[in-house]
Amino acid sequence: MNIENLRSRALDSGVSAKDAHAVLDWPNDDLQSLFAVTTEIRELHHGLSVDACAIVNAKSGRCSEDCGFCAQSARYDSDIDTYELLSSDEIVAAAKKAESQGARHFGIVTAQRGLRKQDLPKIAEAIRRVADETTMVPGASLGFVEPEDMEALKAAGLHCFNHNLETSRRNFESVVSTHLFEERVATVKAAKEAGLLACSGGIFGIGETDDDRIDLAMTLKELEPSTVPLNFLYPVPGTPMAEQADLTPEICLKIIAMFRLVMPKVNLAVCGGREYNLQDRQEDLFKAGVSHLLVGHYLTTSGRDADDDKRLVAGQGLTIKGPQDQSAPHPATLPASDSHRQQNLPVMR
Questions:
Q1: 172: helix, strand or coil
Q2: How far apart are alpha carbons 157 and 182 in whole angstroms?
Q3: CATH for 90
């Protein structure tokens, strides 16, 4: 592939599916030429700064759904903490801790099929308090939510709603049987119709092909979320995908680069599974096109130290956006579909 042609199409409105295949097939020993383009595109739309968000596991485990990659499903025997909805005091305390670690967006995450009516007032109160008592911008991932409840959450101060498509429409049935791909698409659209920014992405390493990865990117491009979070599977003992481990750092970086070139302007996040799958190549995240990171505590257990991520960002000549940068696109409420001992992430419906 002619690198200048790829650059021109990315600078225009994003590359085609054919170009996306070429990116995923890019030679591992020539990634720097690809990174020259993805870095240029990222800097054009996001400058020399990186967005950061943090999340709280506001309701852990016991999820009714059967997503094959997820330790939070009640159907699997995985070693995670389970508990019901946290109080608003606990949620606000988590937001204040995240604020002290440098995040400017905060996501309230619950592991469940959909928002329960009895939980709506509690979550709305937590959202109001996060907005009032911190500089954080509230986001949430609450499963399937009715349009009128989306409106109520927005009225409480919710800014962004996360709902991942996870994989391509074609591959979805091999990953989840308890709900439909179209239900996820409809939920993303409902969030946008309620006036919320939408955050929607996927997880990789769950048996999908390159065609599936590209189809997911093209579907998301049509939906136009403000943020696209990318997750990479850590095979969790007790889940159906416990034995899968077919990602390499190079595959992950080419997936990131492909999404950046398909959607040049989107706020592109890398979240779950990055430590395990990228290993010592995390500094290449930004070269491949990433403009957002999760920082601080993951969910049920400690994740990567926030100071380590600050050093990672600074080492690439970048800065983390502060609370004064509220005009920038809202980042991910972290799709937390993969988990491991250091990173037990909830199902984000």
A1: helix
A2: 27
A3: 3.20.20.70
